Each structure stands twice: as structure tokens, then as C-alpha cells.
Amino acid sequence: MATKSKTRNRKAKESPDGQELLVMELQQIHSAESQLSRALPRLAKAVQSDTLREMLDQRVEEGERILKEIESAFDELEESPGRRRNVAAEGLIGDVREHVQEIAPGPALDAVLIAGIQKTEHYCIAAWGTAKSLAQSCEEKITIRAMERALKEGKAYDEKLTELAEKEINPALESAEDEESEEEEGMGDGQGRSRGRERSERRTTG
Hints:
Helix content is 85%, strand content 0%. With 206 residues, it is mainly alpha-helical. The protein has one domain: Up-down Bundle (Ferritin). Mean pLDDT is 86; it is low at 202-206.
């Protein structure tokens, strides 16, 4: 009897319609873009590559435009962004911030930051695609146009990050590793020569 009573007292699950799902998705996107707009300027200060810094600044500008367009979409839907926090985006951004605390500025940190930003961008691309599909089913034209533009620019941005990593950041990382290896070998050779001189001097003195 107690089990049945608990079951009856549970809140019934909701079954939102397409427009409600669209609003929920837009709220998640709004939260993600708001978090990125705060995090990216701080991350830009930590990078070594001027090109990467410019690309992060570019993403801030794109994010500001996306936020404005989403807010226009909310007006069309007669809804508001609400205060729902996107925990998925929060986790992805949090991982990138941790790397900044753990890795010294240089090619290694730039490479890790590109990877982290791309993971976040891939999440955003998936969210924009979902919102576009829902908007099409609801015939919400403002949202459709906003998501189509976000998808186009987001995919192009992701490709540019990959190109930057392959042509500039990764080669710089490999060069830095080679220099470090040569320095370690040089130190080892110097220690060996020093020990050899010491043995020779002892034999001469004796």
C-alpha cells in the first residue's frame, strides 16, 4: 500500500509540445553563449598565438550576435531566456579554464585551448542544429534564420581552428619539444665532459 501511495504522490511527467521544446533549447543556447562571452576574453589573455587570440575575439563577436538574435526569437515566441544554466557548456568551459591553471603559456597551452574550444563549438553546432529543426517544425522564421547563420559560421570557425592547429600551433609545439630535447642532451654531454676532465686532473696530480 505504501508503494502505491508513493507512486500516486509523484509528480506526473510533462509532455511539452514542439514550441516548448524549442524554447527550452534556445534557453540552453542562450546560457551557453552567455558563459562563453564571459570566458573567452579571459582565455584570450592566456594564449601565445596572435592568430588564435584574434579568433577567440572573433568568436566573442559572433556570440554577441547570436545572443541578440536569440533574444529576438524569444520576443517572437513571447518567451524569455529564463535563468536555466547550461551545465554541459559549463563543464566544457570549466575544463578549458583548468588547463589554463595547469599549463604554462606557450604552444602546448594553445594546442589544448584549441581542442577545448572546438569541443565546445561542436556542442554548440549540435544545439543550433536541434533548434533549427524544432523551429522548422514550428515555422518560427526568425529562429530558423538565426540558427542557419550560426551553423554556417560555426562550421567555418571550427575548420579555421583545425587549420590553425595543423599549420601553426602543432609545428610550434613540435619545435619546442625538439629544442627542449636538444638542451637536455647538451646538458648531458657537458656533464660527461666535465667528469672526464676531473678524472684526468686527478690522474695527473697523482
